[in-house]
Amino acid sequence: MTNLKKLWIAIGILVILSPVGIILPKLFNAEGAWGEWGLDKIGKVAGFVPEGMKRMRERWKAPLSDYGLPGQSEALGGQSLGYVVSAIIGVAFIAGMMYLLTKLLVRKKNK
Amino acid sequence: MMHIPDGYLGPATYGTMYAVTIPFWTIAARKLNKTLKTRQVPYLSLGAAFSFVIMMFNLPIVGGTTGHATGATLIAILLGPWAAMIAVSVALIIQALLFGDGGITALGANCFNMGVIGGLAGYGIYRLIAAGSDIKSARRWIAAAIAAYISLNLSALVTGIEIGIQPMLEKTTAGQPLYSPFPLSVAVPAMVVEHLVVFGFAEALVTALVVKYFQKSDPSMLGA
Question: Quick one: which of A40, A46, B70, B202 has the most CB atoms within 10 Å?
Answer without folding.
Answer: B70
